[in-house]
Design goal:
mainly alpha, 3 helices, single chain
Length: 64
C-alpha cells in the first residue's frame, strides 16, 4: 500500500507542474508500472521489464 500511496502522491504533485497531456502520459506510465509491480513476483517483473526494454530499443533503432 505504501508504494501505491507514493505513486498516487507523485501523480497529484505532477498535476501541479505538468500540462494535461503530459500528466495523462505520466499517469498511464505510473499505472502501468504499478500494475506490473502488483501482478508479478521479482523474477517475473524482471522478465517483463527486459521484454519491454528490448521492444522499445528495437523500435527506436527502427526509427533512426
Amino acid at each position: 500500500m505504501e508504494r501505491v500511496n507514493q505513486k498516487l502522491l507523485y501523480l497529484v504533485e505532477g498535476a501541479k507542474r505538468q500540462g494535461r497531456v503530459d500528466w495523462f502520459h505520466t499517469c498511464l506510465g505510473v499505472l502501468m508500472g504499478l500494475s506490473i509491480d502488483l501482478a508479478f513476483n521479482d523474477d517475473q517483473r524482471q522478465t517483463v521489464f527486459n521484454l519491454l526494454k528490448t521492444a522499445v530499443t528495437g523500435a527506436i533503432k527502427f526509427l533512426e
